Write a sequence for this structure.
């Protein structure tokens, strides 16, 4: 049975609506995954931070903010961050399927550099 032009238009409009709904679901899933990834990253990093500096656990939010502002604002910490960022970027450019190499030895050296 042949469809009239009106029926074809309605059919195509239904397909468009279905595809738009599918797009919305996929965007929603992507945003949800990004939120989960961010939460996981924040928890891991703060856990690492607190394990390295347990005295910060008892600071108030304002004290912690002040501590971070004063520590991160130093020229040394900015240089270190720039170096680490550059290393991560160059490693990602060399092999985009893998993240930058990571080892506990590197963390200890970086920690010593940041403290010294």
């Amino acid at each position: 049975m042949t469809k009239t032009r009106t029926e074809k238009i309605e059919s195509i409009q239904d397909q468009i609506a279905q595809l738009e709904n599918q797009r919305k679901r996929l965007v929603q899933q992507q945003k949800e995954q990004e939120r989960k990834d961010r939460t996981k990253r924040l928890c891991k990093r703060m856990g690492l931070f607190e394990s390295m500096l347990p005295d910060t656990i008892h600071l108030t939010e304002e004290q912690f903010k002040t501590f971070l502002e004063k520590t991160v604002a130093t020229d040394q910490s900015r240089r270190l961050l720039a170096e680490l960022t550059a290393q991560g970027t160059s490693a990602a450019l060399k092999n985009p399927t893998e993240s930058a190499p990571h080892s506990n030895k590197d963390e200890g050296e970086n920690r010593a550099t940041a403290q010294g």
